[in-house]
Amino acid sequence: MNTDPRPTLIAAARQFYQMGWMIGTAGNLSARMPDGNFWITASGRPKNQLITDDFVLMTLDTCRSEAYLAPQQSHTQKRPSAETSIHAAIYSLFPDAQACYHVHSIENNLVSRLIMGDTLPLPPLEMLKGLGVWEENPQVAIPIFANHLEVSRIADEICTRFKTKMPQVPVLLIRDHGVTVWASSLEGVSNYLEIAEYIFRYMVAVK
Ligand SMILES: CSCCC(=O)C(=O)COP(=O)(O)O
Ligand SMILES: [Zn+2]
Question: Which of 20, 17, 204, 193 is nearest to 112 (CA)?
Answer without folding.
Answer: 204
